[in-house]
Write a structure and sequence with these properties.
- This protein is α+β, with helices and mostly antiparallel strands and about 140 residues long.
- Helices cover about 35% and strands about 35% of the residues.
- Strands 2-1-6-5-4-3 form a 6-stranded mixed β-sheet, with helices on one face.
- It is globular.
């Protein structure tokens, strides 16, 4: 397989994980979100939540983090700006469009470090900031 077709398959698989993340987030199911998006605990997944909070590590902490975030910002749309990938790791940078309870959209930024696992591409590290990203 050529490098270009491999990158296309990787980009497609990661985009599918992002659509899964959005759907699980919007449904309010933090447990499904973490289980289907993040690598399992053998990979020590972590996320850095918005607002200058300390990063959290492990699925239980990630579930608690998202369960706390979703009620205030129940809508999300992820927009990939850049994706760089090799055979087993990838780095994605993008914009996150979050909708609060009042319907106001806030644009933040994110970076995800992806790993290829037995379950497919999963997030190993996820960084999010609400301070926006100018177009």
């Amino acid at each position: 397989m050529s490098d270009e077709s491999s990158m296309t398959l990787t980009a497609k698989a990661i985009a599918e994980r992002s659509r899964f993340f959005e759907a699980a987030y919007r449904s309010g199911d933090a447990q499904a979100l973490v289980e289907g998006y993040f690598a399992d605990d053998s990979h020590l997944p972590l996320a850095s939540p918005p607002g200058g909070q300390q990063p959290v590590r492990g699925r239980a902490a990630l579930i608690a983090m998202f369960a706390g975030m979703i009620p205030d910002m129940p809508g999300i749309l992820l927009e990939t700006v850049e994706l760089i990938a090799s055979d087993a790791v990838a780095m994605e940078i993008g914009r996150a469009h979050l909708t609060d309870r009042d319907g106001v959209v806030h644009v933040g930024r994110y970076a995800v470090g992806w790993v290829l696992t037995a379950q497919g591409w999963r997030a190993k590290a996820d960084f999010f900031a609400t301070d926006g990203w100018a177009d």
